[in-house]
Design a protein that fits this description.
This protein is mainly alpha-helical. The protein has helices spanning 45-59, 61-72, 79-82, 113-132, 141-154, 160-165, 174-190, 195-210, 223-241, and strands at residues 83-86, 94-97, 102-106.
């Protein structure tokens, strides 16, 4: 993931544990400051974030497939209710807040449409997992690890192009290595656990979660793959409807 993850509401945070809330200042327990009109004007990060989000939801096949799959599972996603553009600390790009079933998009760190598409997809995978399964985000690190593996595997985080921009390529089983590394990094970013604990959690569920491709049915390595998967998903819906 983009170094963010589901977090409980502030009042449930135990002493000494913040579940990543330190990265999302607008989600902390203290009162939010009142924003001026200028903040929400056409020239702010917030407006740009909202525009890019709208484009992602309407044109990105990864997001479109996930939105349809969640609707089919009884978890219809609404742009105004389930997404929030906020300022974040550090270099995080987004997160899924399981306490509110809301995806946080870090408006101060997302500046390109391709990045927005990837973050929205990544967090929608967490939302899909939250919808379809009884995920214990906060006390079962294996559950968290599984969703992190799926998000890294299916969102395009580990695509060849993205890895080349990180100057990482040419390794045997490179995709699997990337997925494992990013899942471990994500856990360490939001949980106060040792690297050994994070690695053990990821390795313990890696095979089953890496091979769980729902709702795509395949690993969509490119936008064209995602479009093909989306068409197959729509056709699958029509087939079931005729039974």
């Amino acid at each position: 993931m983009d170094r963010s993850e589901p977090r409980p509401p502030p009042q449930e945070v135990a002493e000494g544990e913040d579940f990543g809330y330190r990265l999302f200042p607008e989600r902390r327990s203290e009162a939010k400051p009142q924003r001026s009109f200028l903040f929400t004007s056409l020239f702010t990060f917030n407006h740009k974030c909202q525009v890019m989000l709208k484009i992602a939801l309407e044109t990105n096949p990864y997001a479109q497939l996930l939105l349809d799959a969640m609707k089919q599972s009884g978890c219809t996603v609404h742009k105004d209710r389930h997404f929030a553009c906020e300022d974040c600390d550090g270099c995080v790009s987004g997160g899924f807040d399981a306490a509110t079933s809301q995806i946080v998009l870090c408006q101060n760190n997302i500046h390109q449409q391709s990045h927005m598409n990837r973050v929205v997809t990544h967090e929608l995978i967490h939302a899909f997992d939250h919808c379809r399964a009884h995920v214990d985000w906060f006390s079962n690190v294996k559950h968290l690890a599984c969703s992190e593996i799926r998000a890294a595997n299916l969102s395009g985080d580990c695509s060849l192009i993205n890895e080349m921009t990180r100057f990482k390529f040419g390794l045997k089983q490179h995709h699997q290595t990337c997925v494992r590394d990013r899942a471990i990094r994500s856990i360490l970013a939001v949980r106060k656990v040792s690297k050994e604990t994070a690695e053990k959690a990821v390795d313990g569920v890696f095979d089953s979660c890496f091979n769980d491709h729902e709702p795509f049915g395949r690993v969509p390595h490119s936008k064209s793959d995602a479009k093909y998967a989306y068409r197959n998903f729509q056709n699958r819906d029509r087939y079931y409807a005729n039974l």
